[in-house]
Amino acid sequence: MPIRQLSETMINQIAAGEVIERPASVVKELVENALDAGATRVEVVTSGGGLNLIRVTDDGSGIPEKELPLAIGRHCTSKLADNIDDIRSLGFRGEALPSIGSVSRLSIRSRTASGDSAAEIGIEGGRVLPVRPAAANRGTTVEVRDLFFATPARLKFMKGERAESAATSDVVKRIAIAFPAVRFTLAGSDRSTLELPATEDSAQGSLRRIAQVMGSDFPDNSIAIDATREGVRLTGHVSIPSFTRANALQQYAYVNGRPVRDKLIAGAIRGAYADVLPRDRHAVTVLFLKLDPAIVDVNVHPAKADVRFRDPGLVRGLIVGSIRQALADAGIRAATTGAAGMMAAFRPGATAYQHGGPANGHRSYEAAHRASGFAVYEQYRSPQWPLDMGFGGSGFGDNEQAAFDAGALASADARAGQDEATETLLGAVLGAARAQVHENYIVAQTRDSLIIVDQHAAHERLVYEALKNALHSRAVPSQILLLPEIVDLPEEDAERLAMHSETLARFGLGIERFGPGAVAVRETPSILGETNVGQLVRDLADEIADNDTVETLKERLDKIAATMACHGSVRSGRRLKAEEMNALLRQMEATPGSGTCNHGRPTYIELKLADIERLFGRR
Questions:
Q1: Are residues 568 and 598 in contact, defined by beta-carbon separation less than 8 angstroms?
Q2: In a domain, 426, yes or no
Q3: In the chain, at which end, N or C, are there fewer CB atoms within 10 A of the end residue's CB?
Q4: 348 lies in some domain
Q5: Secondary structure of 183-247 in HEC code, one letter for each residue
Q6: For residue 504, what pLDDT band results from cuts at 50, 70 and 90?
Q7: Separation between Cα atoms, residue 596 and residue 603, nearest integer Å
Q8: Whole-prediction pTM
Q9: Which of the two residues, 525 and 336, has the higher pLDDT score?
Q10: Are residues 444 and 529 in the same domain?
Q11: For residue 457, what are the contacts with CB-CB under 8 A and spacing of at least 6?
Q12: How many domains, in total, are found in the chain?
């Protein structure tokens, strides 16, 4: 078959296959055009999930009549001059309108602020209709009918009306978060309407817009982020560890105001929450990255959802470090939704949530920890700790020990001193211990709430954090291999590992180049014991290639510490004295991340006095 030039319509239909995946893609492109035009109000109407009708109306600057034919021309745009490295608008490729027009019936009606009247142009399956006068207010209305009628094969891949409508709603919400000062409305054929009123363009206004999209619970269960590193600024809000979702759909990320779905950002969020969330739960986040357009490439894919950073390690490190620091600074907090779940448990048919402690078998972990060379192990077992931070120590008393010892009658002065001390404890975050029930749950009281603590889960977190601090406050002890293990790798992977050799050595992994396509491993971290050295090195090489980090090794060490902590923490069934329970509460308040155990389950639940009164019909 001879080589020939494709027709303009065919070229646009090919482009539409990349840009216009489904009705939600059309809405995304048209809403972004409206925002680039300075709109303060954007209205979206759909029918048939967007396949029958999509109408986007804005009050932006409008398109002059003489420029309407250019607006639907391929690679025609007002948003890009001569520098592809300085993109400051949402759109810039000049492909959306001609691509949409090639597979649908498209009409554009627009009027500028200085125009006496409006004008309209249309395209039907790639055939351009002439410009004609029209009646319209200032701004632009783009109407798309019969989407994909010109490419019927694409219609076979569409989902049901409800699924397409949900995807469109998600697109509008995702864009709206980045533009709090713009009013958005979305109306569908099912008569449902999404209304997002405009708020002020400020931190508080942004949080109110986030609450409009993500629900009123999020602000009360989130932590503000604001950090800068080497010219890259990260702002936004992230959920506390006890406020999670079953999927990552409520993780929103923006780069210079552009909504993106970037695997590096998603991976950084997972890394930041690695040891505070269960594997099947996901944090709720809204993160805004602001950086020089020259150091981020948004021209990766026609849909503009992917980006590439010039320094991915910097961006990942900023996200992980900022989130972890924010979680640590926030102290211990329980999700406000916990009380609702606890109250629901009192209803007929409700089942109680149980934290199943692991079986005994901590002695091997004690031995492993001793073998690792951490002298801090003995410190945790010393009497100076209010709780025994060792593995299986007897610092919590015998099983026969009573939870409370009444003792002799105290004098009036002594009782006054006790009352004053108790009053001080009531003002603490976790309050004063009042009782231990079922030999596992500590009941505490604050001035306005009741706290129930899972003693095993809480102590597990305390031991884990102490072990982790010991691991990362000094070089990790290593064991020298009798014979170095040679791992064959692609030359570029071997080079990357060699560049990070100093960091790897600090974690106990000693490597050096062994020819052009291999590395020799001479030392491994003692705490790992016998390990698959080749697999570990290859995993590290893959991660460095993706993110320019060596988090894999650190995460493996943290997992060992988590397992040791799980087997070394106080067991369910141990009776505690009042002072031991209070000591546990005070250590929880001073330990970052103690609101969840190493597996991500909650360590305590708070029930406000107002909730208790509602249970008894007092409110």
A1: no
A2: yes
A3: N
A4: no
A5: EEEEECCCCCEEEECCCCCCHHHHHHHHHHHHCCHHHHCEEEEEEEECCEEEEEEEECCCCEECC
A6: confident
A7: 5
A8: 0.70
A9: 525
A10: no
A11: 355, 596, 597, 601, 602, 603
A12: 4
